Amino acid sequence: MAFLIPAHLATKDELETARPDDYAAAKNLKARAQQLGQSVSAYSWQRARINLGRYLSVGSDNKSRSKSRRAVALQLIMSATGYRPLPKQLAMHIADHEDRIDKFFAGGVGTGKSTSAVVEDLICILCLPGVRGLIVAPTYDQALHVLLPIFLGFCEQMERAGYPILRKFYWSQMRAELIDGGEVFFRSTSKVDNILGFSFGWAHFDETETIANPERVWDALNGRMRAEGPFRQMTGTSTPRGLRGVIGKFQAARESYTTDAERADLRQRYFFIRATTLENPHLPADYVESLRRTYSKAAWEQEVLAKILRPEAAVYQEFERSRHEFACASRAEFVARLKAMGVPYDVAYDPGQTYAHVLWIARFAECDVIFDELCEDNITVERLHAEIVQRCLALARPPTWFVCDRAVKRERTWAAEFFPQSRIQIMDSHAEQSIIDGISIMKSRLDPMIGDPVLKVAGYMWDRMPRRAIVKCFMEYRYGQQADGLLSRMPYRDNKVDHGMDAIRMFVVKRYGDIHRFLVVQRRAA
Hints:
This protein has helices at residues 12-17, 27-35, 45-53, 62-81, 87-94, 113-127, 140-160, 214-222, 245-254, 260-269, 287-294, 297-304, 321-324, 331-341, 381-394, 409-418, 430-433, 435-446, 470-476, 498-525; strands at residues 100-107, 132-137, 166-170, 175-178, 183-188, 202-205, 232-238, 270-275, 325-326, 345-350, 357-363, 368-374, 401-404, 423-425, 455-458, 479-481, 487-491. The protein has 526 residues and is an alpha/beta fold.
């Protein structure tokens, strides 16, 4: 059943003269609609949109009218596009609070965060005719290839059903011109400062927690929410990254009450809802199982269950001897086993400046094992190179991979010259260079969701530990602290343990990054 008479059923004169209470003037419209098997009321589409925008009236029933307005707009979108919100999405769509509301959808990967947020944008467009809106993504690619296709897809479906929203899209400006005179701007977080002087009635900030300072961007957007209209709204979505960023701002705002009445009001003013990946019945049958096989336990709780985990100072708090020791009494015993079994090995090398760290990692079928390291302080480059060559010769074969820092060309050239049979590996792409994504992949090896750890350290290395031993690096690697006392998303670089951590992270990312790359892309695009 059509909700309203589409504009394409009426002539221009009829659109200008039709009134909701003037059934005589709408007789021709109703006859045409009945030929299509539609049951309709006597509205033109243009007039209906104006009435939606004016639905809010001042009075004691302000809130109920506001919710009715959202329900009317959502019903129209669902009828025209076939959109069917899940329960958590529906709760977000109908939530309202007088003349201003902020909403946040915290969800796991695949929960439809971006889609439901774009529907929120459409509700704002329907209820705020002639008002500017803003859609912000962490990167230009996400704005162009994720959010914009969702928005244009809904606009196309609405137009096919007879309810056009989009008049024209200006690709060079990433700006949509709407038929009611409003506009929608698409921007990345790096271009947010370019909207100085603009006034918006609504804004949508997607995947807020994937950037370094999301609260700064949120505050910048909040300062632009000054367009006139019956209400203003900001919408945020993301998979949680702890009680920080925009999620932290929401929590602080929702808890800043002194009375029960104020508490209830703030819960409506700052609407927050959380959904897990498991709640979406439309995902492929093997999708959740693929996450279960590749995620660490911490990543499962964060990325799938969307839990707001309290951040720990230690980066690898799961690292402990009882789980990550590979039983072996001595290096000689380990090397003998390595040679007898024909197990290949790799070298991971972070040169640093005066605190280089070199690791030797064996590739057993069941796990990777760090079995040797070179982390002497203030060692000269000549001695370091000679020691690396000598230790590799003692193993009777060259390393399969030689993983080193892409930023130090001199070391790559040296490795290629002295190990011509080895494959020189560097962090080629921005995704591989990402420390945050690299830590996530490391955790999936240290604490997989299914099975035992698949990255271990030889037992004898736990007993003899120099100042910068890899075991100490794992245990002492910490997140940095911000000026406000909160933990940073990036580890602290103390020039002591970070070089060992960089070396093992580069190896793990290069060896296992392809398994996780699809999941990382899906997380950012969700």
